[in-house]
Amino acid sequence: RGEIGGFGWTLAPQTVRLRDIHLYNLQPGAPVATIGELTIEAEIIDPYALRMGRDVVLKSARLSQAELEILVDRNGRSNLTELRLPAGGAGRVSLDRSQLQGTLEEGRLRYQDERIGWGVALDGLSVSARSGAAKGPLDLALTAGATGGTFRFEGRSSPIERLDLVGRGGVKGLVIERFGMSAALARIRGVE
Q1: Span 159-178, mean pLDDT?
Q2: Are 55 and 49 in contact (CB under 8 A)?
Q3: Which listed site, 26, 64, 104, 166, has its alpha carbon 20 to 30 Å from 33?
């Protein structure tokens, strides 16, 4: 379930702006994410064609002040399990994401896994992602960083000063190409 606090759009460039977005899990209705603002730029190919369907090329998606909370219980069930995209119409809108570039600014991520007793909270999160597939499985080249946070394991915690990551991700997982972290616990630098 989702709630949108504000909505606006322009025709040139073709842009939709959503504000104060709240996403909830269906069961038990707990908040999963909030987004201060989401701006999507797209191009509708031949918008005045005399047909019901439309071809839409997604150009950019910019999120700001987004907070995401991922919780995994002792049985391995995530609070994201019940999130579903709305059912689409009978092929009336075709989305091409081959040119899509996404950014996140001023984000916050909280991940807690009760199976193994660890979690992380990242503040000042920024992500830049670029799509590599038009209509097939989601394939992204991404760069991410955080300017602070906390790592928790079995009741102990350690502050994170900085985190940097470069990789490729998609529906089937994430391949990390470069990783770096500075924390009170350790300084880590790695390459795949």
Answers
A1: 86
A2: no
A3: 166
